[in-house]
Specification:
It contains 7 helices and 6 strands. It has 292 residues and is mainly α. The C terminus is likely disordered.
Length: 292
């Protein structure tokens, strides 16, 4: 666990969380353009169009992820719970996203909004761009979650003693003392936690794979998006059961987290749309790629 990888001359730290986010974005952008070249409407022009979209996706991810996190903290703030950040008295802390405090769902919805807006500007079909973008985005997220592991963000709950012998990446042993900048929290130093950051890396790859398999056999634009919402919602809801960081927002006496509420809504929406559009058939640009 290395919150800070090294320092540049002058004492400027290179943080593992930021580096992994950057690498994840670059990988996701590359996958996005590759999918656009293979499955786009115009194989020659689409890679450049989709490259222009990726910048707005990045803006949407950062703004949406931070905004969602801040809103949850404001709703939960009671002046007592130390897990709640006081953004009202310290508003400048809102912009310090590099310290952690990013919501995946907020980032995803921000990316969807900004990406689809730019897709329209580039005269790319927004829903088609979303199908491809979600696949690429989850590939990139798998790398970004490595940053969560290195910095100690999004950690799991304490493992019951009878399961504490299970190896990494199922469980992880938090170092004691914690390295400078770690987000595990002093109360977890020396504890054995569920390795939820690693699980979310695997989850992101699995969701991307599911999306790609649906893409290869889809019958209409949007089918990939709806399938991914269902798959991610189910898997995220499950992983949340093992999370131990209450700072992400828990409700109803700790029964549900913010992400579980959003996951349930995403699953319901995805299933409803898959049912309502089950008879839909589009003339897809990638139909020529399929074996007959």
């Amino acid at each position: 666990m290395y919150p800070t990888l090294f320092e540049l001359p002058g004492g400027f730290p290179i943080r593992s969380f930021g580096l992994m986010l950057a690498l994840g974005f670059l990988l996701g952008s590359w996958v996005y353009t590759q999918l656009a070249e293979r499955y786009g409407d115009d194989p020659e022009r689409d890679p450049a169009r989709y490259s222009a979209i990726t910048l707005w996706i990045l803006i949407g991810v950062v703004l949406g992820a931070r905004a969602h996190y801040v809103i949850v903290q404001l709703l939960r703030f009671d002046g007592v719970d130390p897990d709640n950040e006081d953004f009202l008295r310290h508003p400048v802390e809102i912009v310090k996203f590099w310290r952690g405090g990013l919501s995946m769902y907020g980032g995803m919805f921000g990316a969807i909004a900004a990406g689809m807006w730019k897709a329209r500007r580039e005269r790319v079909r927004p829903l088609h761009a979303l199908d491809l973008g979600l696949i690429a985005g989850f590939v990139g997220q798998a790398v970004g979650r490595v940053g969560c592991f290195l910095v100690g963000d999004d950690f799991g709950s304490v493992v019951p003693e009878k399961y504490a012998h299970l190896p990494w990446p199922i469980t992880l042993h938090v170092p004691k003392p914690l390295p400078p900048g770690s987000l595990f929290g002093e109360e977890n130093a020396g504890q054995v936690l569920w390795a939820t950051q690693n699980w979310m890396t695997v989850k992101a790859l699995l969701v991307a794979l599911i999306g790609y398999l649906v893409l290869k056999h889809r019958r209409y634009t949007g089918q990939v998006t709806f399938a991914i919402l269902v798959a991610y919602g189910v898997l995220r809801f499950t992983v949340e059961c093992f999370r131990g960081d209450a700072i992400r927002g828990v409700w109803f006496g700790g029964a549900l987290s913010t992400s579980q509420i959003v996951s349930a809504a995403a699953v319901v929406f995805g299933l409803v749309m898959l049912f309502l559009w089950r008879a839909r058939r589009d003339v897809l640009p990638d139909a020529k790629l399929r074996p007959r």
